[in-house]
Task: structure prediction
Amino acid sequence: MKIIDTLSSNRPFISLEFFPPKSKEGHPAFFAAASRLTTISPAFVSVTYGAGGGSQDATLDIAQALQNDHGFETMAHLTCVGADEARINEFLDALSARGVSNVLALRGDPPEGQDEFIPDNERFKHASDLVDYIKRVRPDFGVAAAAYPECHPESESVRSDLEWTKVKASKGVDFFVSQLFFDNRAYFDFVQRLRGMNVEAPVIPGILPILSLGSIRRILSLCGAAIPGRLYLDLEKAHNEGGNDAVRALGINHAVKQAQHLLDNGAPGIHLYTLNQADACLEIVDRLSL
Result:
């Protein structure tokens, strides 16, 4: 089933993103958290895919279990890193055999030890190439793609980034999932600009709950997202006065306010980057008026 066919245009929803544990020793804790999150009844969940295909098997195993054992409609990430037609076909066939028929098509990050993304071949240089190929060879699959409200860190300009987003839409993307952001103005401006370019695919905003100062510093350094200066200063103050518990409380409160404002002003739903942490996600959703 394609996820886009299950999304209502007038009923806000929650979706979730998980990442595979680094080893099978982490599976019990991971699936315990996932099981608790079934109470949210997310519209779908996504499973990340490691750079260089390092966690491809883990993605398949996790996606299968989430789809068939936990009842989630599951979307697996797929990247251009190390991609060729044979490997992509193999991955799509493996997903289909496991009952999963939705993918999030991404260019992907450079493999570990590599400073910049270097395509393995000319056929799959961009996420749009991956979208185009999947839509042609597997029309039974739902295909989503990433969007960057604050502009992809490697884009030449905001305009260039919008044009690349439009290219992905022209290849048949069902919907977009946004990179995390902390200022809703970036999201609404981005969507407005896309609509002005006749891109009508839904853009689901991605929200990351800040659970510690160390983790948000690390995540921001990896993805290039910006954080409002006032929020960062408040987080530092909370850390100095109350430690990680105070940072977590402030971070969750910000996520709730941010998500509610997005929903109240027309966002189709909220995509929560779970960090595989059930407690924070449950608290956020419990406090939202859906």
